Predict the structure.
Amino acid sequence: MPPPPGAEGPWTEIEEASMPTTRPKSLTAPALRGRKVRDGHDPLVMVTAYDAPGARMVAEAGVDLILVGDSLAMVVLGYDDTLQVTTDDIAHHTAAVSRGLASLDPEVGRPFVVGDLPWMSYHTSTDDAVRNAATLIRAGAQSVKLEGGRKRLPVIEAIVDAEIPVMGHLGLTPQSMHAMGGFRVQGKEHGAALELVADAKALQAAGCFAIVLEGVPDRVAQMVTASVDVPTIGIGAGGDCDGQVLVFHDVLGIEDRVAPKFVRRYAEVRSVAVEALEAFAADVRGGTFPNDDESYHLDLDVAETLHLYA
Ligand code: KIV
């Protein structure tokens, strides 16, 4: 039986002895837990992915973590908010990501896969939460992420107790958009900033191996980052977190709806794609696609038996 990815102890010796290639080591939850920039580590890079080709691109770019985020709802499924996706939706896309990574060249490092627990998958009971987390693990995730501070501690502890690594998510938590009164930057007041620090410490104590900080002032994110020993991964949280995450469709310029100020686009894939599709449509309409080289041909003798002459 091959050793599980990231296994330590005797497994590692067996794996290293029998490995023919110099396959790059992939990250594990225990290894991620210590990845603080203040301890000399490089910042972590996380990008969302929702399907096999996307996952392969993210891996080939050398990204550390893939989040199969509930942003799936908006950037892939066309909804206006993240509240519309279910555990089965996230599992379906996690499985696609996992198949994409499995088909990679062995020399490409595998990003660590985080499955996002959607709204109402961990709000009803700890049993439901553990069951839904297990669904994402069975689909191919190596950990799960969930939103919220101290009120989520029983759920986090139960999932960690089931041997499933948990990533926390504090600040602007989109699953609470109605309760928060919209997508608003969090932690702007003195008391709210201190609450965020207390939440982060509590999440760490409950066993979270990393914490996403979304939509908080940079100085508050810096304070939270300094107050915990697990890495913080920021989105709209300034440059002092232990890592950064962006949505795949935002990085590549595929999503052209509202772009928050923290998004930096590294390409304009949408406009390139629309131009390519326009060119295809024009070629079909103009009769120039397909050409002879793009068509299959009958052998001449068969063509003759069918009375087909050039
Ligand atoms: O679903 C998602 O994409 C996320 C990130 C924005 C952190 O939760």
